[in-house]
Every structure is written in C-alpha cells, then in structure tokens.
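Renewal narrative, Specific Aim 1. Our central claim is that a sequence can be written position by position from structural information alone. The example that follows is taken directly from our test logs and has not been curated for this report. It begins with the structure tokens describing the chain, in the order in which they were read.
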C-alpha cells in the first residue's frame, strides 16, 4: 500500500497549523483587549461577524468528512440520485430564512432552546436541550471516526492516534478562540475542501480521457440515474423520498439546530443572516456536486475492477483516500491536499458541534441557576468545550460499529431531527399549542422513528429497494473465474406487517415531524390551548399567509390563518413619549391580549 510523502505531510501540517494559529490569534486578541471578557463575544462573536465568513462556516459545518467520504461512495454504488438533496436544501434555505430566522431575531436569543421556554415552559426547553446534546455527541463521534479511517488507510497511522489528534486540534482552537476562531478556521477548511475535490475531479477525469468518457461509462453501467419517481416509501432513494424526507431532515439542521442558529445570530442583522443562508446554498451546491462528480469518476476508473471485491479496501468509505493515492502517486503534495480536504470536513463539524454543545449547556442548564460573573461564564464555556471534545473522542470508538458512515449519520439526525422541527413548528405556527401538547407530541414523535429504526435492523431488506448496483472484477489482474450472479426476485405484492420497517431512512425525520405536530395539536386542543392562545406573545409567532408571497390573498383568509389573532408589528426605532410623566419601557411595545382580539 502506498504512503504519504513528505510534501503531503507538509500540506497536512499547514492545515493543522493554520487552524491552531487562528485559535491562538483570537485568544491573544481577547487577552490584550481592555474590554471585560463577555460570553456573547465567545459564543456569538459579539453579533458582528461579516456575512461571507458566516455563510462559508454554515456550508462546511455539516458538509463534514461524512459527506467527503460517504457521498462519492454512495454515488459509486447506487448512482446519482443523491444529487437531488441539492434541491431539498434550496427549499430548506427558503423556509429557514423566511420563518425561523426572523422569529429568532425578534426574540433575541443566544441559545435556540431559549425560545421554547419563552413559548412553553422550562421542561420543554430542557427536553429539547437533552435531545440536542445526545444526537450531537453521537454524530461528533462518527465525524471524528471518518477522517481517522481515511488516515489509517493511507498513512498506516494508528486509528486511535488519528482519532485523538483530530479531537485535540478541534478542542485547542475552539477553546482558545471561541466562535470567531471556529468561523474563520471553517473558511480555510472550506477552501481546502473545494481545492481537494477539484484536484481529484480534474486529474481523475483527465486520466480517463475527459469527463464525457466518464459519463459514457457511468451511463452504460446504470450509474446516471436522476428520474426515480417511485411512490413506494421502501425505495431508499427516489425523487420523493429525497425532496420530502430530505427537506425535513435538513430543516432540522439549518432551521433549529443550535450549531447553525448560533451562526445566524453572529450576523449583524436579520437580513445578513438571511443572505448568509442563501450564500451557504451556493457553497452546498458546489460541494455536493463535486462529491457526485468524484463518485462517477471513481466508478469509471474502477468499473472493471472493484477495489472492495479485489480486497484493496475493506469498506467503500475508504474509496476517496485509496483513489487519491493511486491518481496522485506521481504528484507529491496533492494527495496531502485531498486528505486535508477529508480532515477539514471533520475539523469544521467537530469544532462547530462542541462549540454549540458548550453554548446550550451554559445558556440552558447553568445560567438559569447561577449568578456568576461574565468572566466565570466564559471560563466555564471553555471547560465545557474540553469536556465535550473528550466525550466525542470516546464515542468515536463506537462509530466503527455503525456500518456505512453516510447512512449511519443521516439516520442519527433523522431520528432526532423530525421531532425537534415539529416542536418549533408547534410553537411558531400554532398559537394554541401548549406545553402539555408539545411535550407529549415530542415524546411520541421521538419514539415512533426509533421504533422504525430498531425494526429495520431485524429484517432483511429486498435488494430491489436498496438498489445497490452491480460491480465487476473482470479487469482485475488476479481474476480467474466469472462471478455467479443471482437474480434478485421482484418484491412480492403480498404485504407483510414487517415491511413497514423497510421504509427509507429519508422518511425518519418526516415521520417524527408528523407525529410530533399532529399529537401536539390534538393534545393542546384537548387541554385548553385554544382558550389560552391570546396570552402568547406575538413576537414568538409567525403567520405564514402574512408573508409578502401571499399579498394577493383576501384578509379574511389571512385572519383565518392567524387563528383569530393579530400579527406582531415591529415597534418604531425611536418611540415618542406622549406624556412627560410617562417613560416607555420594553413592555410598552408588547401587544396586549386585548389588542390581539380580532373578529373573525
């Protein structure tokens, strides 16, 4: 097996060194600053970060090593249907920018889950916080494991040595520099990711005679596949499973996940935050498209000799580093760039995750019960970064037991994501939703997807639904005999109850969302939510039909969509005092329950 050369290690060292330097820079900047150290600076960058670095940080935060390794492997084995996630991400960007971001800015949050206490009560907030901590730690363990696997494959470095080095570097610059260091290292790591993908795509397609030849080979072998409109939810990837299920999945990450909302709140204004979301989509389009392109190039390169069947690799997730070593064996330093791209995806996601975990721990668990100085809170945040980073390193061990890393990662977020989106949807869209209804809806919405996930592990899913495409060994040098191919029978029309467990993992978020919102609405109406809806602060609500897109609708329809309430009107920037003895306060701008009354 080939190994990295000295120039490759130099490129890799520059990535790690630049990340560490940024952390040290912001730590020194805070140290020499005459200002009192503030948790808002450490966690939110003082809410003054420019739109471009925020957008780049949002892009790479969850386009991690899971994407770098898993997406090309997905395309190699299953075809190009994965690209449709780009469309679902555009839908998510529109919903996030027009519904969730304006609401969070009106309320003035530091933690996403502060909203839930203002809207419902502390129990609902703590439930959501605990769910976020559990899912993020599980995901971070998986993200640390993925690039460590790549390094182990190409350098021979021990797996645990790779895992520990990944975690330590992330802890170092996140602990020292806070969110500003995380964002600016994300910018560098994003550039490295794009550079590595481009280098691999250009050299890989050139070696085969151009991308037109790659496309021809993929078409002949069934890898070019964009038009699967099957309505059976058991099919793993179809247009419907990706557009519907994918939208709910990514909505959880981009609309209500603390790691992303924390970045929106770093922006100077709500309009900057909205702009960052759409700039982020452009970056996502580039990265996902490059991953799909590299997947097709790898298949064209190995279409006559599959590396896994030839025992060159042990998992398809190792294809990218293996391919990079082979393609750039005569180009010292470029393999290091590709491996750095894999490592960059992990660094950005892990630093984002542990920063968000520290923030919610401080804001949702510690601050409500303590009265410390700002400096003490900041030092606690740094300690929390170290603690969560250490936990994630430990959890990385268990990630090796989850199988294909892409589906494992998406399944983890799918189980928790739908209920969390449903919880915030109940609060923002339905003024009659109350704490009892949302709490019960959340528990049910979490239980049903977990039931499906566990049930799926107990059955054998027909290959017709997984659509794993065939690979060949005919061109391998040690190939001696044809492979006996057994034709998979078409799925039976006789429905068995256990077949409901075969539903695509893309629908886990959708199922959780529907269960949470439907149960939440029903229980809320049964426990007096309709009578108390006028007591809800209008700042916490968003009425969909009041959006400018629906300006042509009659007012009667809009009043119906508000459930008998008036929409929130932003106060003027400079309030006029009508009476010399009257001093306006923040409460003077709140719409009272009486003012909300409207005839329907």
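The sequence written for that structure reads:
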């Amino acid at each position: 097996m080939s190994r990295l050369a000295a120039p490759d290690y130099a490129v890799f060292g520059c990535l790690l060194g630049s990340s560490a330097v940024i952390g040290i820079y912001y730590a020194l900047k805070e140290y020499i600053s005459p200002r009192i150290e503030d948790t808002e600076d450490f966690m939110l960058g003082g809410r003054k970060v420019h739109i471009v670095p925020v957008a780049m940080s949002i892009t790479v935060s969850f386009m991690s090593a899971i994407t770098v390794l898993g997406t090309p492997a997905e395309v190699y084995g299953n075809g190009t249907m994965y690209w449709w996630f780009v469309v679902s991400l555009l839908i998510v960007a529109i919903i996030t920018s027009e519904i969730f971001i304006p609401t969070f800015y009106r309320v003035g949050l530091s933690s996403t889950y502060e909203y839930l206490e203002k809207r419902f009560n502390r129990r609902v907030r703590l439930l959501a916080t605990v769910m976020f901590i559990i899912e993020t730690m599980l995901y971070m363990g998986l993200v640390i494991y993925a690039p460590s696997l790549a390094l182990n494959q190409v350098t021979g470095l021990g797996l645990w040595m790779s895992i520990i080095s990944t975690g330590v570097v992330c802890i170092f610059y996140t602990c020292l520099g806070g969110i500003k260091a995380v964002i600016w290292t994300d910018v560098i790591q994003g550039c490295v990711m794009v550079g590595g993908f481009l280098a691999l795509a250009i050299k890989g397609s050139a070696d085969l005679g151009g991308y037109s030849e790659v496309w021809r080979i993929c078409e002949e072998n069934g890898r070019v596949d964009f038009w699967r409109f099957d309505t059976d939810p058991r099919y793993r990837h179809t247009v419907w499973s990706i557009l519907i299920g994918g939208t709910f999945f990514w909505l959880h990450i981009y609309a209500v996940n603390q790691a992303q909302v924390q970045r929106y709140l770093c922006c100077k204004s709500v309009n900057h935050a909205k702009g960052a979301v759409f700039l982020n989509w452009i970056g996502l389009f580039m990265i996902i498209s490059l991953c799909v392109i590299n997947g097709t190039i790898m298949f064209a390169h190995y279409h006559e000799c599959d590396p896994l069947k030839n025992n060159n690799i042990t998992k398809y997730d190792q294809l990218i580093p293996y391919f990079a070593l082979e393609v750039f064996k005569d180009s010292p330093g470029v393999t290091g760039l590709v491996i750095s791209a894999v490592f960059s995806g992990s660094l950005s996601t892990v630093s984002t995750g542990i920063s968000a975990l520290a923030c919610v721990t401080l804001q949702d668990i510690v601050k409500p019960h303590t009265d410390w100085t700002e400096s003490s809170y900041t030092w606690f945040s740094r300690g929390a970064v170290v603690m969560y980073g250490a936990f994630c390193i430990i959890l990385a061990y268990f990630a090796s037991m989850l199988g294909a890393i892409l589906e494992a990662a998406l399944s983890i977020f799918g189980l928790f994501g739908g209920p969390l989106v449903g919880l915030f949807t109940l609060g923002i869209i339905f003024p009659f939703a109350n704490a009892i209804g949302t709490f019960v809806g959340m528990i049910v919405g979490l239980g049903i997807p977990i039931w499906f996930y566990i049930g799926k592990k107990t059955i054998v899913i027909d290959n017709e639904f997984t659509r794993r495409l065939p690979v060949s060994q005919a061109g391998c040098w040690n190939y001696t005999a044809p492979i006996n191919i057994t034709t998979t029978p078409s799925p039976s029309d006789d429905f068995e109850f256990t077949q409901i467990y075969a539903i695509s993992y893309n629908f886990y978020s959708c199922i959780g969302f529907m269960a949470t919102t439907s149960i939440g609405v029903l229980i809320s109406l049964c426990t007096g939510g309709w009578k108390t809806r006028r007591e809800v602060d209008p700042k916490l609500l968003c009425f969909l039909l009041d959006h400018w897109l629906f300006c042509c609708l009659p007012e009667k329809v809009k009043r119906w969509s508000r459930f008998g309430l008036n929409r929130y009107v932003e106060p003027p920037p400079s309030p006029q005092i009508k009476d010399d003895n009257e001093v306006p306060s923040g409460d003077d701008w709140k719409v009272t329950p009486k003012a909300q009354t409207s005839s329907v």
